Amino acid sequence: MPTRIILKPRRARPFYARHPWLFAGAIDRIDGAPVNGDEVAVHAHDGQFIAWGLFNSNSQIRVRLYSWDQAQHLEPGFWKGRIDDAIRLRHEVLKLDDPHTACRLIFSEADGLSGLVVDRYADWLIMQLTSLALSHRQQVIVDHLAESLHPRGVYLRTERGVGEAEGLVLRDGPIWGETPEGPAEIVENELTFQIDLRTGQKTGFYLDQRDNRRAVRALALGRRALDVCCYTGGFSLNLARGGATEVVAVDVSATATALVEANAQRNGIGNVKVETADAFAFMDRLAAAGDRFGIIVLDPPRFARSRRSLEQAMGGYQRLNEAALKLLERDGILVTCSCSGQVSREDFAGVLNLAAEHSHRSIQILEQRGQAPDHPVSASCPETNYLKCLICRVV
Ligand code: SAH
């Protein structure tokens, strides 16, 4: 008999609707003595089967749900099938299969694989595990990825803070094939980027901005550009390639800005000026010097990590956008992003509304964009809809 997790009365609705996170507070009782990582059956209070999941007593997410078919257990074939579905979307449906490019192959909840992220950078795979139970199934996952994709190597990356939340002890390092020695090279929108697979931010590159970078490129011609929080130059290089007269790029990380220089050079781009500085201080300095730009991209890090920090985060977005408006010419283009899942599209539009008021400017939103489609949004899990990218004209 598998362990049965019985929910409290009236707590089953989100799980029938296939939300994959079952928090401890929704559980009435546990029939059995599951060990962390075990498969468990989740039942409504009336006894009705809902889904199969994996148990972890260390985590606030006590059970992650994966299969809503009672006949479909979480055995190796199940994981392989889910991985195949995810790869098929990227390589066959979205045609992101060029071996020189990069894409997100598996995006956790959005692919029915809560706790697993896999990115492909040309012929390297980077894997991120954020669930203890899935880490117990790491071998099956890695072997299947290697068999299906024949990468040069698979490298494991961990995210800060996740270990404690899940009771997960993992170390970054190679888990299959070769170990990446120097940076890898990928092509995105016909531009070449060097990726530090072992120590770069996230898994090395912000792949979710691919299509937004292309959209911004189409608006750059003849404009002086500012790329705020540029990381390794994803937007900067597209602005330059799109015909910006000059690109000023700023990031607080010196390792990131060093890569912007290298990436610009590698693509034969000579008009990107890079600064290593705090974005707020740098923009204040530019404003004091009377600098002006025709297009500004704001792509700050995730300001809100939890509901509690939401208010502070909104203040951060507000200050950043107002600082940008001071630097933006009349008829200028503002591209403003937020990758905080906690901040809704309405909240973010509210930030712009206030920024317009405080700056005495009119803001027209031309495009309301999100994450690239290899980072799909699961209809069952609104938390997967995290990236906002608004392209605006400012009068
Ligand atoms: N636009 C980038 C991704 C940006 S991610 C791209 O297209 O690839 C957010 C970046 O903000 C990170 O590179 C981080 O180093 C930087 N950052 C964080 N705090 C900052 C600050 N106070 N000032 C400037 N940059 C900052």
Per DSSP E runs of 2 or more residues, the count of β-strands stands at: 20
- The radius of gyration is 23 Å
Strand content is 25-35%
- Name the bound molecules: S-adenosyl-L-homocysteine
Oligomer: single chain
Structural class: alpha/beta
Shape: globular
CATH secondary-structure class of the largest domain: Alpha Beta
In the sheet with the most strands, the strands line up as 16-15-14-17-18-20-19
How many domains would you count in the coordinates? 3
User: End-to-end distance, in Å?
Assistant: 67 Å
| Stretches with pLDDT under 50, minimum 5 residues | none
Q: Largest beta sheet, briefly?
A: 7 strands, mixed
Helix content: 25-40%
Named CATH topology of the largest domain: Rossmann fold
The overall pLDDT average reads: 96
Considering the protein shown, what is the CATH homologous superfamily of the largest domain? Vaccinia Virus protein VP39
Architecture of the largest domain, according to CATH? 3-Layer(aba) Sandwich
